[in-house]
Amino acid sequence: MSNSKSFSRRNFIAGAGLLVAGATLRVKGAGFSGWDDEPIIDIHQHTDYAGRTNAELFAHQKTMGVTNTILLPAGHDINYGSTNYGFSNGLQVHATSNEACYKIAQERPKEYMFGANEVPDVPNAIKEIEKYLKLGAPIIGESKFNVECDSPEMQDIYQLAQQYKVPVLMHFQYKIYNRGFERMYTMLEKYPKVNFIAHAQTWWAHIDKNYPNQNILYPTGKVTPGGLTDQLLSKYSNIWGDVSGGSGLRAMTRDEDFYKDFMTRHQDRLLYGSDCDDKVGTGKACTGWQAIQQIKKLAASKEIERKILYHNAKKLMRLDV
Questions:
Q1: Percent residues over pLDDT 90 in the chain
Q2: What positions does the domain Amidohydrolase-related occupy (predicted)?
Q3: φ, ψ of residue 81 in degrees (nearest 5)
Q4: N or C end of the chain: smaller count of CB under 10 Å?
Q5: CA 175, 117, 124, 16: dihedral to nearest 10 degrees?
């Protein structure tokens, strides 16, 4: 854990703005026709996702109608248990490094921002993450590693997040990524000043109180209210839900009556992300586009829709977009 003195990200960026002007968070909109009235922040995308080129990524985001995108990097490739001995390198989707995301944000500062990430139990993990937080990363993640969610290494990351006042985005997947989801409440209590963004199969499957088999990552059918996910969002103010990916879309479509109420109750702590690897950006091929349509369909008001697609992310990460 770094011993550097805690200070505000905003103050740091203000002081170092001339050095990193291309990568700061002062994004004023992409300027594409029809977008400025209803901007969308995508908190969850990846570079080189399943072999997609940068040009294809840019076109994909534009087609979806996304105005601002946060690129979530992978840690270094390494043959560790935390990366399932290399199987999960690149976040298991060939996502690329901190530097790759940072470079795009420098080149296209009006549209792209970058996260900060590293395999939590490698030497100098905190130093690597801190390097990109100092450059202006508004988020740590995507943390998608085969470790316990309350392990000492992850707690070092939570402490860093607290120091820099940034959220941590975590991929919860039973027995493989951020294990011990049932204990996550202890981290919410231990680090009340840290905002945790939860994502993926185990998080979204647990909207259902009657979720008997955690090996089933994509449950179907009607949802019984009162699941662990719902409980965490109701009890703790420092946990947020990332609606991205197939798991997030499945949660929105399996029981629309339940999810409409769920969205209303948790409207202030749901965040839009795409996390899709297609090259189309629309229609049934694109889960990110489908998620936008579901949010618009199920939101009980325009205010709720805009919170999830834009305002919540802007507020949480203090983005000037």
A1: 88
A2: 41-318
A3: -60, -35
A4: N
A5: -160
The model carries a pTM of: 0.88
The model's pLDDT over 299-321, given as tens digits with 9 standing for 90+, comes to 999 999 999 999 999 999 999 99
Task: Indicate if the pLDDT at residue 296 is higher than 80.
Answer: yes
- Predicted confidence band at 37 (pLDDT cuts at 50, 70, 90)? confident
Residue 213 token pair: 């088999």
Q: Which of 94, 42, 98 is nearest to 244 (CA)?
A: 42
Q: Which domains does the chain have, with CATH numbers?
A: 33-316 (3.20.20.140)
Q: How many CB atoms lie within 10 A of CB 218?
A: 12
Cα 147 to chain centroid, rounded: 18
Q: Return the structure tokens found at 53.
A: 């080129």
Which residues contact residue 319 at a Cβ distance below 8 angstroms, ignoring those fewer than 6 apart?
Answer: 25, 27, 41, 68, 113, 138, 313
61 pLDDT tier (thresholds 50, 70, 90): very high
Residue 12 predicted with pLDDT over 90: no
Tell me phi and psi for residue 187, to 5 degrees: -75, -35
The pLDDT value recorded for residue 261 is: 98
Cβ neighbors of 147 (< 8 A, separation 6 or more) are 82, 120, 121, 153, 154, 178, 179
In the chain, at which residue ranges do the beta strands (DSSP E only) sit? Answer: 41-45, 68-71, 112-114, 140-143, 168-171, 196-199, 239-242, 270-271
Contacts of 102 (CB under 8 A, 6+ apart): 23, 114, 132, 135, 137
Question: In 3D, which of 64, 177, 70 has the Cα closest to residue 113?
Answer: 70
Per-residue pLDDT at 8 exceeds 60: no
